[in-house]
Design goal:
The two termini are 32 Å apart. The strands form three sheets. This protein has an eight-stranded mixed β-sheet with strand order 3-2-1-4-5-6-16-17, with helices on both faces. It has helices spanning 21-30, 48-53, 62-68, 80-85, 102-110, 132-151, 178-189, 202-209, 219-222, 237-250, 274-279, 324-340, 357-360; strands at 2-6, 32-36, 57-58, 71-76, 91-95, 114-117, 159-161, 164-166, 170-174, 193-197, 213-215, 256-259, 285-288, 305-308, 311-314, 363-366, 369-370. 33% of the residues lie in helices and 18% in strands. Helix 1 (21-30) packs parallel to helix 12, helix 6 (132-151) crosses helix 7 (178-189) and helix 6 (132-151) runs antiparallel to helix 12 (324-340). The protein is an alpha/beta fold and 373 residues long. The mean pLDDT is 96. Bound molecules: nicotinamide-adenine-dinucleotide.
């Protein structure tokens, strides 16, 4: 029988858990025994009792559970001490950030651990049900708008009351990928007047289908700004100048700016300078989801809400963890769909088919070799 262990997260700002009680039965049906570290789900609203009701075992000795597990599952990467306690040749899955965590990579390699960095699951159609980046970004986009509404001193919808009319908030979403599109949809549902900007022209149709206005000032350039993988390219200095001028006009016309613009493996594009912030209306709110990659807004700081001349700039890190219940549920579903392809249907044994790109592109370390770094 394959032993799967779910660890409690070790970072203060990580409230998610990698497996929610409702998903436990699916593993049992696949022939796995599920063990949960004591209180692993508590910060996302799932108690030990909830897991026990689904026939999961709560570990009574975490050290021996780690040692006896074939698969160790976490949202983020574990401490090196834990990796060192793992069985040689076992499997670990999580958002391992392998480009940053070189020391951990060495331990996986030394112990011949098969380490899967789940953020590297290729974004191909067949992998959509395993796409953790999408499921988590979607919730981040939603929560960012709620945070903006919380900090904003006025209302989002227009209200016509006997006392007078309240005007609707104007929301501009920068970056219309997965998080941005959900931010647009959420702001629309709250009654705001919404517009969006992206350097990928492909996103124009998606933005407009949500009933928002797409800001475009150089359509010809945007036709070539998307990589084959569907991501944004870094723009030329000339384009960036035009972009700054256009945003300098558009941003101060809005009350709320939701920043979600990212370029893979590069610092986040700087879209809101201090000069632009100082032109914004008093009480405006910026949420910078890109803060951990350097930020789209000049003054945003990680895990802080800055008040600059009456403009609030929110820079919370790890946005999906701010909505841990649903983020954990979707994370669990993605992970189960991934683990399923590591197990042979008939023999119910682990079988890592390296010819499957979903498997081979996600591996960081396997049988004493480091890969995809
Ligand atoms: P992301 O998080 O890398 O970036 C967010 C957005 O920022 C992107 O839309 C990007 O174009 C935009 N951006 C970059 N530079 C900008 C700038 N200077 N100004 C304004 N916007 C800027 O992207 P994502 O949300 O992960 O999605 C990227 C792409 O992947 C999209 O095309 C999406 O549809 C696609 N995708 C495909 C699949 C799949 O096929 N399975 C799944 C998810 C996403």
């Amino acid at each position: 029988m394959i032993n799967l262990l779910v660890l409690k997260e070790n970072k203060d700002n990580e409230k998610r858990v990698a497996l929610v009680p409702d998903e436990v039965k699916k593993y049992a049906d696949l022939g796995l025994k599920v063990t949960i570290e004591n209180n692993a789900g508590i910060n996302s609203g799932f108690s030990n009792e909830d897991y026990k009701k689904q026939n999961a075992v709560i570990s009574s000795s975490i050290k021996s559970s780690i040692k006896n597990s074939d698969i160790v599952l976490m949202v983020q990467k574990p401490d090196p001490k834990i990796i060192n306690q793992m069985k040689n040749g076992a499997i670990i899955l999580g958002l391992l950030s392998p480009k940053k965590n070189l020391h951990e990579n060495k331990i996986y390699n030394k112990k011949k651990i098969s380490a899967f960095a789940l953020e590297n699951i290729p974004r191909i159609t067949r992998a959509q049900d395993k796409d953790i980046l999408s499921s988590q970004s979607n919730l981040a986009g939603y929560k960012a708008v709620l945070d903006a509404a919380y900090e904003y001193s006025k209302s989002f919808p227009m209200m016509m009351t006997a006392a007078g009319t309240v005007t609707p908030a104007k929301v501009l979403v920068l970056g219309a990928g997965v998080a941005g599109l959900q931010a647009i949809a959420t702001a629309k549902r709250l009654g705001a007047v919404v517009s969006a900007y992206d350097v990928r022209l492909a996103s124009k149709e998606e933005v407009e289908s949500l009933g928002a206005k797409f800001i475009v000032f150089d359509e010809e350039v945007l036709k070539k700004s998307q990589t084959e993988g569907g991501y944004a390219k870094e723009m030329s200095a000339e384009y960036k100048k035009k972009q700054e001028q256009a945003l300098e006009k558009a941003i101060p016309e809005n009350d709320i700016i939701i920043c979600t613009a990212l370029i893979p493996n590069k610092p986040a594009p700087r879209l809101i300078t201090k000069k632009i912030i100082e032109k914004m209306k008093s009480e405006s709110v910026i949420v910078d989801l890109a803060v951990e990659s350097g930020g789209n807004a000049e003054l945003s700081e990680v895990d802080k809400v800055i008040n600059h001349k009456n403009i609030k700039i929110i820079g919370y890190s790890n946005y999906p963890s701010r909505i841990p219940g649903d983020a954990s549920t979707l994370f669990s579903k993605n992970v189960f769909n991934f683990i399923k392809i590591l197990i042979d249907n008939e023999t119910k044994k682990l079988n890592l088919n390296l010819e499957d790109e979903i498997i081979s592109k996600t591996l960081v370390s396997h049988q004493g070799k480091l890969m995809n770094l």
